[in-house]
């Protein structure tokens, strides 16, 4: 049996995020954080500069090619959103060389982007001020599985097969066979990266949102989004995904199960554009 801390510590490729991300984070956390300094940090990385400008000028943000400098982009987006976007963009470089045994990486990244989009859509519908951050949290929500398939692939696959056969929920199979589940692993990775506390808390509580404390509402949003991804992977209709979600979650979010199909359709509509923006070198079916 393996602990989450043990598995995260064994994945050397996941031990750090790019230094530019950490320096931007320092600016965000500092009371003297400077838009000018963040723009300088981003501009010092040509690849990051090109991707940020391409994203801001894409149809996703609607500025239509009018933003031609990083400084202008940072002014428009703000420090918080630039931090979150740089984090999201950093993920593809951190995981570029990861090819876990038994894991379909195209399916994994498709699901991760869809989870992020669905979480953001739900957050906006609920009037959450953190809706844009929920995209990034949703994007990272399943990273525990990447750690698991990189470190204990045979055990991870056995747990997945048990769950797919309908014998028990995936997280229960993982706890019994691996020793921890994907949510606990993901939360441990977030803490290892020293990301803002909400990342670990939301990702760790995505299976049982009520355990999310002050972040229980956001955890409930990611819980619903992850069930949309599961339905997509299994080729299920949206009502099957809605039926898996506890009525207390719908009540907490003040959502109707019938609304899940609309959220799913919106995520599918924007999926290709977001994959191209955040993971330009990936080919996702």
UniProtKB/TrEMBL annotation:
Family annotation (Gene3D superfamilies): Hypothetical protein af1432
HDOD domain: residues covered: 14-209
Source species, domain of life: Bacteria
InterPro entries recorded: HDOD, RNase_Y/CdgJ
A Pfam family this chain is assigned to: HDOD
PROSITE patterns cross-referenced by the UniProt entry: HDOD
PANTHER family on file: PTHR33525, RIBONUCLEASE Y
Protein name: HDOD domain-containing protein
Taxonomic placement: Bacteria, Pseudomonadati, Pseudomonadota, Betaproteobacteria, Rhodocyclales
């Amino acid at each position: 049996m393996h602990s989450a801390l043990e598995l995260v510590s064994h994945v050397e490729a996941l031990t750090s995020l790019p230094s530019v991300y950490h320096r931007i984070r320092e600016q965000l956390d500092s009371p003297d954080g400077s838009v000018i300094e963040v723009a300088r940090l981003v501009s010092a990385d040509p690849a990051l500069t090109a991707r940020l400008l391409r994203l801001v000028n894409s149809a996703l943000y609607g500025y239509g090619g009018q933003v031609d400098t990083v400084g202008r982009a940072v002014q428009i987006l703000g420090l918080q959103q630039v931090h979150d976007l740089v984090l999201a963009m950093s993920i593809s470089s951190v995981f570029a060389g990861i090819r876990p045994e038994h894991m379909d990486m195209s399916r994994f990244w498709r699901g991760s982007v869809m989870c992020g989009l669905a979480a953001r859509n739900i957050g906006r519908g609920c009037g959450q001020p953190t809706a844009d951050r929920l995209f990034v949290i949703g994007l990272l929500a399943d990273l525990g599985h990447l750690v698991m398939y990189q470190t204990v692939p045979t055990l991870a696959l056995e747990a997945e097969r048990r769950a797919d056969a309908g014998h028990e929920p995936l997280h229960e199979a993982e706890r019994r066979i691996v020793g921890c589940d994907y949510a606990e692993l993901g939360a441990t990775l977030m803490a290892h990266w020293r990301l803002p506390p909400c990342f670990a808390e939301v990702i760790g509580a995505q299976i049982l949102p009520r355990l999310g404390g002050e972040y229980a509402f956001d955890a409930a949003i990611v819980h619903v989004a992850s069930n949309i991804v599961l339905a997509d992977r299994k080729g299920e209709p949206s009502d099957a995904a809605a039926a898996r979600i506890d009525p207390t979650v719908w009540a907490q979010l003040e959502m109707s199960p019938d609304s899940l199909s609309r959220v799913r359709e919106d995520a599918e509509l924007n999926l290709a554009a977001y994959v191209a923006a955040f993971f330009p070198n990936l080919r996702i079916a």
